[in-house]
Amino acid sequence: MSKLRHTLQLLHRGALSTRQIGAALGISKSTVSEIASYARVAGVDWALAQSLNDDELQARLYKPPVARESRHLEPDHAHIHRELRRPGVTLQLLWEEYQQQHSGQAYKYSAFCEKYKAWARRLQRSMRQTHTGGDKLFVDYAGQTVPVVDADTGEIRQAQVFVAVLGASNYTYACATASQKATDWVASIINVEDTRHRTCRHLT
Questions:
Q1: Core-most of 41, 42, 76, 144, by most CB within 10 Å?
Q2: Residue 122 has what pLDDT?
Q3: Are residues 195 and 188 in contact, defined by beta-carbon separation less than 8 angstroms?
Q4: Which residues have CB under 8 Å from 178's CB, separation 6+?
Q5: Residue pLDDT, tens place only, 66-78
Q6: Is 60 exceeded by the pLDDT of residue 155?
Q7: In whole angstroms, what is the distance from residue 54 CA to residue 13 CA?
Q8: What distance in Å separates the CA atoms of residue 11 and residue 35, rounded to the nearest whole number?
Q9: Which pLDDT belongs to residue 195?
Q10: What is the DSSP letter of 169?
Q11: Rounded to whole angstroms, how far apart are CA atoms 136 and 33?
């Protein structure tokens, strides 16, 4: 007779405490209590246990709980991934659209972002790179421009956005320039170095 079945039999008789049953069968008191609890929840009494073989009895007592159906509607992560490639599209904007379409079943913004990031990580096939401090400075212009108002004339001009990122620390510097000409490019790099009070070996 299996220990599971024997435990149920002794519990049914009611002559011994859980501690005494555990000592008799070489199992802990907590295990006896656990078996009693599982049997009660599963509706398995000694009469039913006798009609089941060992595998059936164990399956009846320890069957996995039925997963609750989520009340949230999963976002279309592939659609989100495509939309984020478009200029001006952000996760905040896509979440607001998702929430409007599925208000009662929408995830909160934080969960929406975490789920997308977890999905996106599975797509990554890039090699991890280790950067040494002071070695590389990554520089480029952003794809979008920003409007700048001339204080004297009131004229609105579109300024270019220069961005620099240090490879080791991810320290980020950004500034607006009148153009992407070499003079503005060089001046922006000099401003980065002046801000940090040091230079990098390589510009990338």
A1: 42
A2: 80
A3: no
A4: 157, 159, 160, 184
A5: 555 567 888 999 8
A6: yes
A7: 20
A8: 10
A9: 77
A10: T
A11: 63
Q: DSSP assignment, residue 108?
A: P
Compute the half-sphere exposure of residue 107: CA atoms within 13 Å on the CB side of its CA.
17
As beta bridge partners, residue 174 has 163
Backbone angles phi, psi at 178, to 5 degrees: -70, -30
Q: Read off the DSSP letter of residue 72.
A: S
What is the distance of C-alpha 30 from the center of its chain? 36
Evaluate whether 75 touches 114 at the Cβ level (below 8 Å): no
Q: Of 111, 112, 110, which is closest to residue 94 (Cα–Cα)?
A: 112
Closest CA to 93 of 116, 59, 62, 70: 116
Distance CA 62, CA 45 (A): 14
Length, in residues, of the chain:
204
Strand partners, 156: 149
Q: Which of 192, 190, 188, 194 is nearest to 176 (CA)?
A: 188
Q: Nearest-CA neighbor of 176 among 190, 163, 189, 193?
A: 163
Pairing of strands 156-166, 136-141: antiparallel
User: Which of 81, 73, 67 has the alpha carbon at shortest distance from 111?
Assistant: 73
Residue type present at position 11: L
